[in-house]
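Need a sequence for this fold. Nothing fancy.
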């Protein structure tokens, strides 16, 4: 079972990611589900503390309107889930190199305003699920 965890504060974009994941699960006939879909980092952390040993794919925005940003959240996720796949999706292309400073081993860094978000997500999912 593959679990998808989304932390995105833009409601429209979060819905778009949900649709992409659900389509991917259907297309691949994947045994998977969206286990967390939130704007709050604490909900992600509550999930990962209990489920860090599951097969998890985290889709995180970097600029969150919360008490931490997506990079800090990813660092905290790694304390409980060293094997989970982290995909950053953000408008802030200038932060792409910053992800390496946090040492969170991100699978991908996708800029929101590009045309191929769906295909980039699917490529990352294929790597994570393979």
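Here you go.
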């Amino acid at each position: 079972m593959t679990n998808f965890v989304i932390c995105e504060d833009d409601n429209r974009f979060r819905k778009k990611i949900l649709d992409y994941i659900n389509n991917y699960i259907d297309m691949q006939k994947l045994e998977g589900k969206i286990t967390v879909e939130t704007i709050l980092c604490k909900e992600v952390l509550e999930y990962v503390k209990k489920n860090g040993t599951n097969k998890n794919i985290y889709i995180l925005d970097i600029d969150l309107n919360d008490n931490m940003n997506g990079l800090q959240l990813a660092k905290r996720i790694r304390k409980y889930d060293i094997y989970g796949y982290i995909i950053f999706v953000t408008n802030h292309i200038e932060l792409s190199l910053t992800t390496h400073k946090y040492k969170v081993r991100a699978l991908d860094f996708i800029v929101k305003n590009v045309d191929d978000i769906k295909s980039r997500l699917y490529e990352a999912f294929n790597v994570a699920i393979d």
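For context: The domain at 2-129 is CATH 3.40.50.2300 (Rossmann fold).
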